[in-house]
Amino acid sequence: MIAEAVAWFGDAANWSGPGGVPARVLEHVGYVALALAIALVLAVPVGLLVGHTGRGAVLLVGAGNIVRALPTLGVVTLFFLLLAESTPAAVVGLVVLAVPPVMAGTYAGVQSVDAHVVDAASGVGMRGMQRLWQVEVPIALPMVLGGVRNAVLQLVATAAVAAYVGLGGLGRYLMDGLAILDYAEVVAGALLTAALAVVLDLLLAGLQRIMVPRGVRLAELTTSKGPA
Amino acid sequence: MSLTDELGTYLGSANTRAQLWAALAEHCYLALLPILFGVVLAVGAGWLGQAWPPARGTLAVVANLVYTIPSLALFVVIPGVIGTTILDSINVVVALSLYTAALLVRPMLDALAAVPQAVTASATAMGYRPARRYFGVELPLAVPVIAAGVRVAAVSNISLVSVGALIGVGGLGRLFTDGFQREYYAPIVVGVVLTLLLALVVDLLLVLLRRVLTPWQRPTPTSRTDAEVAA
Fold this sequence. Notes:
Chain A: It comes from Prauserella isguenensis. Chain A is 81% helix and 0% strand.
């Protein structure tokens, strides 16, 4: 299996043109980025609103759990029959699956902000919107990004599955390889998809670490140094 | 033909209903057997983490890495690693067992590490040897955390099995490939609904199982305890 895959990666023909590795990786990242952008626009405001006001939390969490149980292949094939076009169908399917993790992360982030901190912000005279943008959002940001990480993992995996209804990207190697029983191509596609998922997750994990506000980091340092 | 008519025709056929039952049964087997294997793997990993704390970091990193791998990629690579044919249902069971274990290892290690020192010390003082202490004291105390992880894993496995249809093993997932190939809504809609229902039922059963396994967490009013004493 390893030898076959190495031979596949060594073949220059697999690295150029619209079916080459760089083009397929870009396509895959493109679908993920597009779906994520739409999901962020839809999910972040709702998550912020629910987290800030505390209303509708039960509904939000319940909806998130239902979507986690949704079979991705079913969603993608259903939208394909509805829209009769593979790219829009796949992107709509991807958005549906990416919205709940982003929404849950945003809500959980805002929700987790210490009540004393919110109280202190009101105490120094901050209004609702100021409190949201200057206190709650910065503190919630790492958890929002946690939701984004979950969404990206889901998106990379589902974009590969969507190759079944004709979407481009790395899933093409998997589907085309399976169709002609070219196991080297299948394995190469699987390795590329897995590598892409790992790399994107590491990048976001790094971003998540940078995004922790300095104040919160300092507070954590002082509490961890405190008496045990 | 409207969707309701289509569904009526589809579900009206005895042949279809037999196929649905078979697909549902296969789906249960493919999604739930891995829970068992995954829990066993995670219990093993927890034991390793307790017996030798330096292993905890590595275990957590490996679990995170496994969880990152997209399902379709894992499904197709496993036959090359364990030497099965690509259409073998074992591939899906192995892949989902790995996901379940990966999901459980982190909370498991944290929960075991959170067992109060005084509790383990008391158990040791009462003569519990390490193995009996692990299975009799530490592991039961970690059950609530493990149960939460198992619920997530069960729901996600039930959803992931369908992807297996792309390699010919997918339980209810075959309804999606079938509907797609025939451009027919009914099987896809029925497949999605049955998957959601199955996830709901399994989730409720797991909540019940958790209650049975953690009797000390149940709210017991004093009056009931008195009644039990009197009885």
